[in-house]
Amino acid sequence: MHKSLIAICLVAFGTSAMAQMNPVGLWKTIDDSTGVAKSLVRITDDAGVYSGTIEKLLDPATKPGAVCDKCTDERKDKPLLGLTILRNVHQDAGDKTVWDGGDITDPNNGKVYRTRLKPVDGGKKLEVRGYLGPFYRTQVWIRVE
User: Fold this and answer.
1) Number of domain units in the chain
2) How far apart are CA 105 and CA 112, in angstroms?
């Protein structure tokens, strides 16, 4: 009985740790050039399609009611709060530690980049890479929950 309880606890702990090694959750975005915390983004999974929405603005320089005035698609002039910035991301078929295939929008300049997400540091951090052609930039987001 005692060994069974230990085995159940180990399986439960292992499952919990593995659950953290995906991008689902609430993340604090950190600007890669200034190091300033910009927002909280919630990433969700809908049948294997991942998306991320701005849930809270943290940067004191962002005015209340700010909109994505530089966006060029259906998000143009939409409020930053509640804006979906990650769309159509899927787990990579060849590398199960990476999520890609979708896009990320930088609301500061309105540009849309191909994206890749990779949980690191046991799922406590998320490498968010945006690609434009052969060029890319990477931010490291911090898990909040």
Assistant:
1) 1
2) 4
- Give the 3-state secondary structure of residue 46: strand
d(CA 130, CA 115): 5
β strands within the chain, DSSP E: 25-30, 37-46, 49-57, 84-91, 99-105, 112-120, 125-132, 135-143
Are 123 and 144 spatial neighbours (Cβ–Cβ below 8 Å)? Answer: no
Cβ-based neighbours of 13, under 8 Å, separated by 6 or more:
none
CATH number at residue 124: 2.40.128.520
Query: Six-digit token pair at 17?
Result: 């740790």
Is 21 in contact with 5 (CB distance < 8 Å)? no
Reference 29, options 20, 37, 19; nearest CA is 37
| pTM of the complete model | 0.85
Distance CA 16, CA 53 (A): 24
Write out the residue range of the structural domain in which residue 6 sits: 2-143
Q: What is the pLDDT of residues 65-100, one digit of tens each?
A: 999 999 999 999 999 999 999 999 999 999 999 999
Query: Is a pLDDT exceeding 80 seen at residue 18?
Result: no
